Amino acid sequence: MSESKGKIAVLTSGGDAPGMNAAIRAVVRTGIARGYEVYGVRRGYNGILNKELSLMTFHDVSEKLQHGGTFLFTARSAEFGEEAGKQKAAGICKELGIEALIVIGGDGSFTGAKNLSKYGVNVIGIPGTIDLDIAYTEYTIGFDTAVNTAMEAIDRLRETSNSHERCSVVEVMGRSAGYIALWCGIANGAEQIILPEKFDNNYDKLIEQIRNNRKSGMTHQIIINAEGIGHSYGLAKRIEEATGIETRATILGHLQRGGSPTARDRVCASVMGAYAVDTIVKGGRNRLIGYKNGHVYDIDIEEAFSIQKSIDDYEYEVAQILDARCDYSK
Ligand code: F6P
Description:
This protein is an alpha/beta fold. It has helices at 20-33, 44-49, 78-81, 83-96, 107-117, 143-164, 179-187, 203-215, 232-243, 263-281, 301-305, 313-322, and strands spanning 7-12, 37-41, 53-55, 98-105, 123-127, 167-172, 192-194, 221-226, 247-251, 287-292, 295-300. Residues 15, 106, 129-131, 173-175, 227, 257 line the site of 6-O-phosphono-beta-D-fructofuranose (F6P).
């Protein structure tokens, strides 16, 4: 057997996202193919602090690709959040001879990785979050599956809302970002979308629109409310009291994070997982993997943090044109 090129480790951190398993599998198998020993770290950064890691074989990642969640488990580590925790983790990586640590997670996990890199650990990040709220990349693992899950749920909600001639407020995840809400707004043909990036807090205007929609003959309405706005039960009550239209609130919650990943999530996660290993092979240090103009690429972690993004204005305009507010025929 040929000599190992070195040790790399992989962990998942923060909220799980469908497709994380596909990314782990790609890291393990590409790592082995390129001559590395690949260690799976359990329970995020806690797993480094507690030395919960084991050497992975090609077969250890069999039958994982099609499942949501993360078989390495995930956690938000309080100890790692402290400076002393990061220092300890860096010391353990050094002691174990880990040449590079691949972190699959969202913004918070990448902040942890960036800070860890200051103690000499080579960190490579793969964006895994259903929220799509990482600026340097057009794609984050799990978004596609989560949007499809929410879309199917909202289609179902529309049927019961229609039957009862109700107004339905449906809250989708996204933390402080409105990408899932915007996409569902377009995909479900919602009558209104309320996004943290765009909402002007004018609830009177929103309620007036719901009233007008009803007057114009609309028997039921779907209002998609982003998690970053929240208070969906209160909003439903307010709408019902102000308009007399029976209104119900549904919070889709964590069910949006589960389920078998879509083909897009499986493929993009696999490509980014492999690319993360190849970035190490090329000698890359402290890089984040992402998609730009439809292609996989890598970017310096500090530079990635300086990039900002927000909701696409044109997509938002499209959502508004296609909703009930703009019936240009009248
Ligand atoms: O970041 C993913 C996400 O699902 C957010 O949309 C949500 O705000 C958060 O995680 C929920 O976190 P937890 O699983 O800790 O409740």
